[in-house]
């Protein structure tokens, strides 16, 4: 055996491995550049309230502030309508690999690839997905529910929804309120002592009315560890908590 040559191959292999690891680290840092756990992005008043009321923020605070329009769409659904049974149950573990889930269910739900799985709104017996606006922003107020039993997806409940084909592009765009400012306002005015913010994400939200024509606004969604959800309007900064009197 040519040990000198073998040694050279090992050295080059280790160099290549180090380069790959460095590239992966760079990619991870790049992905994290848009979000930060640095609470100094919050106002001094919000930080003081956090300390006084022992409020914790467990999720990253997104730094992106895109320009988004309001969204017009058509929606209709019967709240008490029974779910549609699948002809062939699907292994529910596929929910953790969305591409596989899409492939398994696209025969019965052709547009399932236009939805995003929401682990925080999902609960025992049902997985929740939201339609995506412009392929990126979830419409939080509309839900596609996948019903499962004995680790098998056995049925689904799908809303009748028609999004603006332009994704609201014809509407006037406005720069979105920074997440740090929206969260700071929420901390100062509404969050009870001991709260823990589990998730911060941007999407669309609008109350659903008995009318097919609906309007949703860009909203920051903040979900607490105890299950409560708050929405902060990305334009007006109004705060909504759907399941409470606030």
What can be said about this structure in brief?
The chain is α+β, with helices and mostly antiparallel strands. The protein contains four helices and 17 strands.
Protein model, in words:
The protein is built from 4 helices and 17 strands. It has 246 residues and is of the alpha+beta class. The chain has 3 domains: 1-33; 36-69 and 168-240, YycH protein, domain 3-like (Lipocalin); 78-158, no CATH class. The strands form 4 sheets. Strands 2, 5, 12, 14, 15, 16 and 17 form a 7-stranded mixed β-sheet that branches. It is globular.
CATH C-level class of the largest domain is: Mainly Beta
Taking the alpha carbons of the first and last residues, their distance comes to: 77 Å
Q: Report the principal-axis shape.
A: globular
β-strand percent reads 35-45%
Strand and helix order: HEHEEEEEHEEEEEEEHEEEE
Give a short account of the largest sheet: 7 strands, mixed
Protein name: Regulatory protein YycH-like domain-containing protein
InterPro entries: YycI-like
Transmembrane segments: 9-26
Organism: Paenibacillus spiritus
